[in-house]
Design brief:
Shape of chain B: globular
Strand order of the largest sheet of chain B: 7-4-11-6-12
Mean pLDDT of chain A: 84
Radius of gyration of chain B: 24 Å
Distance between the termini of chain B: 54 Å
CATH superfamily of chain A: Metallo-dependent phosphatases
Number of helices of chain B: 7
Distance between the termini of chain A: 42 Å
Number of helices of chain A: 9
Low-confidence stretches of chain A: 1-32, 294-312
Largest interface: A-B, 108 and 76 residues
CATH architecture of the largest domain in chain B: Alpha-Beta Complex
CATH topology of chain A: Purple Acid Phosphatase, chain A, domain 2
Radius of gyration of chain A: 20 Å
CATH superfamily of the largest domain in chain B: 5'-Nucleotidase, C-terminal domain
Number of strands of chain B: 13
Strand content of chain A: 15-25%
Number of domains of chain B: 2
Low-confidence stretches of chain B: 1-23
Shape of chain A: globular
CATH class of chain A: Alpha Beta
CATH topology of the largest domain in chain B: 5'-nucleotidase,  domain 2
Order of helices and strands of chain A: HEHEHEHHEHEEEHEHEHEEEEE
Oligomer: heterodimer
Largest sheet of chain B: 5 strands, mixed
Helix content of chain A: 10-25%
Structural class of chain A: alpha/beta
CATH architecture of chain A: 4-Layer Sandwich
Largest sheet of chain A: 6 strands, mixed
Strand order of the largest sheet of chain A: 6-7-9-10-12-11
Strand content of chain B: 25-35%
Structural class of chain B: alpha+beta
Helix content of chain B: 25-40%
Number of domains of chain A: 1
Chain lengths: 312, 258
Amino acid sequence: MKTNRRNFLRILGAGSLWLSTSNAMKAFGSTVKKDRLVILHTNDVHSHLEPFPSNDPKFPGLGGLEQRAALIRKIRSEDDHVLLLDAGDIFQGTPYFNLYQGEVEMKLMSQMGYDVTAIGNHDFDAGMENLARQLQHATFPMICANYDFTGTPLEGKIQPYIITHKAGMKIGIFGLGIELDGLVDRRLYGKTVYKDPLLTASQMVIELRDKKKCDLVICLSHLGYKYESDKVSDVVLAKKSRGIDIIIGGHTHTLLEKPFKYKNRDGKDVVVAQVGWAGIHLGKIVVETDHRSKETKISSTSIPIKSDVRKA
Amino acid sequence: MKRLLQSLGLTVLLLAAIIGCTRKVHVTNVEAGTVAIRTTDSLSDSATHAILLPYKLRLDSQMNQVLGTVEMAMPKETGKTETLLGNWVADICLVKAKQYYRSDDGQQPDICILNNGGLRTSIPQGPVTRGKIYELMPFDNELVVLTITGKKAKDLFAYIAATGGQPSSGFTMIIKSDKTPGATTIGGQPFDENKNYKVVTSDYLALGGDKMNFFNAPVKNEVVGKKIRDGLIEYCLEQTQKGLQLKSQLDKRIAYEN
């Protein structure tokens, strides 16, 4: 039965269909308690705290932190279990960063209730001492498992992962950062040592999945969605890893209107998500859990909806 | 569920997550989508608004200055050999480097190369503010002049061809179908591999950014003493003083062979 579950996953073009293993319908009964975890995510917001102007050639009137905050508040009012994540490059892109070095971003993201963020290459842009200073304005941690900050101003300030409990689940979230050489001025990242993301990820899965017994493992990545070269990316990570359920990414500013799924080394599905840049989109992933059933239902459907948010 | 999603205007894909039964909690499905955030939605949030406002007022007093008028929108684009935005910025950098660079051998800068990734936003048609130039070039990158050998310059052109074009000025180049450089002219003269060239770029690229390895160990590395952003702002103000609009054009400076 385990084998059946593992083998079974279908994505359908439209409509919806419930597939189940032999006893699944029992699990679908009304007596079963089900929980919903809503994961909201952003990446590469790059200090875009205000919307693009109405005459912008590409994103007229889109984005805006206050608008994002209102949307998140609305979602929180409708769902009890919400995780709010950012995949890095919070800093650099508008005069807000030039003038205030990230203070405003940190304060606002704290107000919005971000749970945790990754570290992007541009989060080094005003130096590590600055990032350490701005973290004092943040109520959320920044995580990265593959940067060794020993001997830098960030030593002891960045943890590899966090564990949180939501929707009846124990959730492990670990961070991965991109190779800094050739991307970030050496003077800015100093003694930071970049470690292999794939190896680090496998260590994190052992820690979170096997030792800490997490039900859900999420990687918050700033590696980039995918590359033409064999450079490590979220897609490479998804395919070459095991034990990661969801990869929420950034760096390449890729807008995945729907996340893609990839088979990992065990043939299990990994959801890979990324939502462009500048806070134009908010990603939303819903994880449904079943506390009693020993059966795993598999459902897939796509619902393209173009209703106006204003009517919400 | 569906009602909720519809009410939020989502494009949603339901995805399944298969979780082994050794776990005490079973993930029965994973669905995901994105929500576009529009100002027209007139969504407001008083808490974040209150935090942002004092910073915004101080920022606006410095950044809302109109520097000039842009004749035609210059979008940030990828996958093109040349763009209005790339040509505009690279041309200005070459002009400003020539203006401020003090040559000790009488040779002025020949060409300018920047990186597409370094141009961070689109410039709309109409009035352009100081703040918008900050968004285009948020980095404090300095203009530098690197003197490089002809052999390194050859590598530079190979890089541009391989990457399908970067913001460039002062030369023309054909990219062959195998993504290698074809006919190349510098200042109207054919490229000479036996000559040294002076290349204007940013200190970021000169120091190894974007793996432009041809900039490693140059014959000379000289700082112009002007940030790229300041050069752009200065140029906008100068054009406006002359009563001119800000404009760019595509001139096939870099083009694929037919």
